[in-house]
Amino acid sequence: MGMKVLLVGSGGREHALAWKIAQSPLVETIWCAPGNPGIAAHATCVNIQADALETLVAFAVDQAIDLVVIGPEAPLTLGLADLLHAVGIAAFGPSKAAAALEGSKAFMKDLLARHAIPTAAYRTFRDPEAAWAYIQAQGAPIVLKTSGLAAGKGAIVCQTLAEAKEALERIMIQREFGSAGDEMVVEGFLRGEEASLLAFVDGERVIPLAGAQDHKAIRDGDTGPNTGGMGAYSPAPALTDALVNRAVEEIILPTVRAMAAEGYPYRGILYAGLMIDGDDLQTLEYNVRFGDPECQPLLMRMRSDIVPFLMACATGSLAGMAIDWDPRAALCVVMAADGYPGHYPKGDAILGLDQAAGLAGASADSMVFHAGTRLDNNQVVTAGGRVLGVTALGQGVAEAQRRAYEVVRRISWKGVQFRNDIGYRAVAREQQA
Ligand code: AMP
Ligand code: GLY
After folding, report:
1. Cystine design at 296: which of 16, 185, 333, 366 (Cβ 3.0–4.6 Å)?
2. Do 223 and 141 share a structural domain?
3. Centre of ligand 1 from the C-alpha of residue 10, in Å
């Protein structure tokens, strides 16, 4: 009998996971809660929201699910993995206590500081006046972050004290991020190039994935406000093998050991946001789930069956495992709704999907992953800020980029926006080489 898998979530990350899990010969049935129209090609979608913990657990018990794969951070920080373990169902994703690495930046910074793991100097505040005094004493540039979850939008990089004052007011006075801003982390500005290193972790052992690079800003040239991520690619030339080894030895393994030593062993995927400046390697952030969109290019490059890795993280048995990677590059361009990351309309008909799928299907080297979409009378319409993630493989990043944009250009809706320069750093490096 093959395995029954329940995937939780409905974004581009979950579409990539559903697509990848569906390729596993070990799996018989995939459910996805709540899923989206793209995921429906690989899984049976059930209308349970990702944060409806009790309903999800009841469903998993009823269906005799063998493995629950938890995509987004919200159910993890609410304790879905703990509830599933309590009823004897394997869950891919950290416990509630371990998910605080993402759910509370104050927790994460304090843990790293206690264990001398490299991260920017910081202080935590609950009082705006004390925060303002500290900010003025430090001077700009400076970075203000909500301690709680804010969909990737709670970190504000301030080039001037005036910007810092405005950010402080948004977080602590106007409370634009709600209770996520009850506590605020103020940290030193780090220079350099960002990269994402994700790793499978089983409580003790660590298997790094290939490097990836995200593009957080909404507009070309990394300008405009931060988003959840507008595009990503892998491998990331900035993250050399030597740097990956250092990141594992100096950052990820010490963190995993610290978590175990303090009584909350980490299991699942651990995503380290790194800042690289020459020889200097710093931890910008931790996420307790696959990055989105990084997940999309990473899974397109992963040749190994993912299911044994997901199961081994859940059961503490990663020893001796290794990932086989496609040597080609993969690149994802996010297509977003007009106005994102601010307010955006929903329900706009998405045109060109069939044509794009034809192009994608012809080669199997490109995929249109759905993020914020839904079906309206058999028509796929927009239903979120980040709507699609068009991902393609190529011999290098430049070729993957060209292929991805070929597909992107066939798809449109009213006010669609995307960056035109995803991968520019890696393409420049390829041209130099
Ligand atoms: P975070 O949510 O902590 O990853 O921050 C979101 C983004 O803000 C990061 O991807 C960086 O682009 C930027 N950022 C965060 N912290 C710093 C820092 N200390 N110095 C410079 N940029 C930062
Ligand atoms: N792409 C960044 C994130 O998933 O947080």
Report:
1. 16
2. no
3. 25
Pocket of ligand 2 contains residue 214 by CB under 6 Å: yes
CA nearest 271: which of 215, 209, 198?
198
Please indicate, yes or no, whether residues 264 and 164 belong to a single structural domain of this protein: no
Ligand 1, atom nearest to 273 Cα: 4
Domain extent for 174: 121-188
Is there a domain that residue 140 lies in?
yes
Q: Give yes or no for residue 143 CB within 6 A of ligand 1.
A: yes
Choose the final residue of a domain: 154, 171, 188: 188
CB of 273 shorter than 6 A to ligand 2: no
Looking at the DSSP assignment, which residues form a beta bridge with residue 328?
A: none
Report CA(271)–ligand 2 centroid distance (Å).
9
**Do 350 and 267 fall within a single domain?**
yes
Position 225 confidence tier, pLDDT thresholds 50, 70, 90: confident
Cα–Cα separations (whole angstroms), residue 428 to 70, 404, 424, 425: 36, 17, 6, 5
Question: Could you read off the pLDDT of 5-17 as tens digits, one per residue?
Answer: 999 999 999 999 9
Q: What is the 3-state secondary structure (H, E, C) of 235-269?
A: CCCCCCHHHHHHHHHHHHHHHHHHHHHCCCCCEEE
Ligand 2: does its nearest atom lie under 6 Å from the Cβ of 73?
no
Mean local confidence (pLDDT), 370-396? 96
Indicate if the pLDDT at residue 314 is higher than 90: yes
User: Does 113 reside within a domain?
Assistant: no
Residue 145 beta carbon below 6 angstroms from any ligand 1 atom: yes
Which atom of ligand 2 is closest in space to residue 152's alpha carbon?
Answer: 5
d(CA 129, CA 135): 10
Is 165 in the same domain as 19? no
Q: Whose atoms come closest to the Cα of 389: which ligand?
A: 2
How far, in Å, is the centroid of ligand 1 from the Cα of 105?
A: 12
Distance of CA 99 to the CA centre of its chain: 14
CATH number at residue 14: 3.40.50.20
Listed in order, strand segments (DSSP E) in 104-141 are 122-125
Residue 116 included in any domain: no
**Pair (21, 69) in one structural domain:** yes
Nearest CA to ligand 1 atom 4: 285
